[in-house]
Amino acid sequence: MKNTSALVSFALTALLLSGCSGAPEAGSGEGAASSSDTTHPGKTAFMQCAACHSVEASDGNKLGPNLAGIIDRKAGVYEGFAFSEAMVNSDITWTREELDAFLKSPTASAPGTTMIFAGIADEKRRADLIDYLAQSGDGQ
Asked: Which of the given ranges, 1-10, 17-26, 67-76, has the highest pLDDT on average?
């Protein structure tokens, strides 16, 4: 990928400007919550993703692909987004289990991915994020 350092710089700047603290947010997270529901525990986890992704289908793609309706979507396929070769050629379908593995360690799950993200070590935080993504809408 050309301009990788510029992409890294942009992604890090966007993350810093997003103002996310990464601290857990209070709330039970029970039941289906809208993506605008600030009480959903996965919403806080998603804040670090929001610098590059959206869960609102109407938002389209950002630096990363739109994540609305990601559950059971084939990796590397979303209209209007140019994925890395690694993601396009992967055999990944975004089940909860695949998302958990990817969110734990993107480069271990999809070697060669260009997603700039170290991963989420905390199992509960990953589960909350996946629950939040699961209720995020239909996507394409």
From this structure: 67-76
